[in-house]
Amino acid sequence: MTRLFHLMMTAPSATFTQTKPTETVAPVSLKTANVHNKSSLVSKATPAVYDWDTFKFAPIRESQVSRAMTKRYFADLDKYAESDVVIVGAGSAGLSAAYVLAKARPDLKIAIIESNVAVGGGCFLGGQLFSAMVLRKPADQFIEDLGLEYEDEGNFIVVKHAALFITTLCSKVLALPNVKLFNATCVEDLITRKDAAGATRIAGVVTNWTLVSMHHDDQSCMDPNTINSKVIISCTGHDGPMGAFCVKRLASLGLLKRNAMGALDMNKAEDAIVKNTREVFPGLICAGMELSECDSHNRMGPTFGAMVLSGVKAAEEALKVYDLRKKQDLEDMC
Ligand SMILES: Cc1cc2nc3c(=O)[nH]c(=O)nc-3n(C[C@H](O)[C@H](O)[C@H](O)COP(=O)(O)OP(=O)(O)OC[C@H]3O[C@@H](n4cnc5c(N)ncnc54)[C@H](O)[C@@H]3O)c2cc1C
Question: Of 72, 204, 265, 283, which one is least surrounded by beta carbons within 10 A?
Answer without folding.
Answer: 72
